[in-house]
Design goal:
single chain, about 290 residues, mainly alpha, Transferase(Phosphotransferase), domain 1, de novo design (two linked rop proteins), 3-stranded antiparallel sheet, 14 helices, elongated, KEN_dom, transferase, kinase, ATP-binding
Length: about 290
């Protein structure tokens, strides 16, 4: 049976049983010095040190998610290479994923640096987990931040078509611009800030435009759905740009999508930790704990 100990701050955990864990242990829980040493090790010297952090589960969850998505593969390669690739922060399998949204999420979850890994609450705000409505709420929140729009206009945006106006097509672009302050010719097809403004204006003033759009499909249930069918990676690209500079995460409209987590303000209180506290108090009082 595994024994769980909660150390200072209730953020580090210690367990004593290695079990069948090869390839499924987070980077910070492995004795890398011992593994890279040329000294002869005792059979009882396990290379795994279960000093578990809360974010350790995030990396393991990323491994399991990759295993599911790829139907049985490991993100750090074949078994013979897994420990080395884990040590080198080299999830070789990510480059083989065709879904950029999944790749981006797992690249964060599998990261070596604990400080760079998201907490659960933060991971659940990634575009992968957001509904169409939530993704478009995020896009509109970006539109409502002029400072970010000005910054994004100078940023090289990848994973998106080079000319967004062509994606809409002439007829749909005319429909979306109808009733607005700008004609289709006034929009620059290479500037996604213009695209964001058009999307924001359309969602605020839909005026029955969905029914007239030519590029919608029978499954298109809303304008939000329509925009994401044409630009499925747009929320992801915006998410990536914002992550590059922490100051954007603090903008009022974007705080909801980039929660700040500080576990020090809310200690983890569990039955095991309560028992540990009682034992420590008995020891301090000189009582027999045997």
């Amino acid at each position: 049976m595994r024994q769980l100990y909660f150390l200072t701050g209730a953020t580090t955990y210690l367990t004593s049983d290695e079990g069948e864990t090869h390839g499924w242990v987070p980077q910070e829980c492995i004795d890398w010095v011992g593994l890279y040493s040329d000294k002869i090790r005792k059979p009882s010297d396990a290379p795994i040190h279960f000093r578990w952090k809360e974010k350790s589960d995030i990396q393991v969850a990323g491994m399991v998610a990759f295993y599911i998505v790829t139907k049985g593969k490991h993100p750090f390669g074949p078994r013979i290479d897994q420990l080395k690739d884990l040590h080198d922060d080299n999830p070789v399998g990510l480059s083989k994923l065709s879904d950029h949204v999944v790749e981006d999420l797992l690249s964060q979850m599998l990261g070596r640096d604990l400080d760079e890994r998201p907490y659960v609450e933060q991971a659940l705000k990634h575009p992968f987990f957001l509904s169409f409505e939530e993704q478009m709420k995020f896009v509109q929140a970006v539109v409502n931040e002029p400072k970010f729009i000005n910054y994004a206009s100078e940023h090289r945006i990848s994973l998106l078509p080079t000319d967004w106006k062509r994606v809409f097509g002439h007829e749909d672009l005319n429909t979306l611009c109808r009733g607005g302050h700008r004609s289709p010719s006034e929009y620059n097809g290479s500037r996604y800030t213009d695209c964001l403004r058009l999307i924001g204006n359309t969602c605020q003033h839909p005026d029955g435009k969905l029914r007239q759009l030519k590029k919608k499909t029978p499954a298109t249930s809303s304008l939000e759905h329509y925009f994401l069918q044409l630009f499925p990676t747009l929320p992801l690209v915006l998410h990536q740009i914002i992550r590059e500079d922490p100051k954007w995460k603090t903008l009022p409209a974007l705080k909801e999508f980039f929660p700040v987590i500080d576990r020090r303000k809310r200690p983890i209180q569990t039955k095991a930790y309560t028992m540990y506290q009682k034992e420590q108090k008995k020891i301090a009082d000189g009582e027999d704990t045997s």
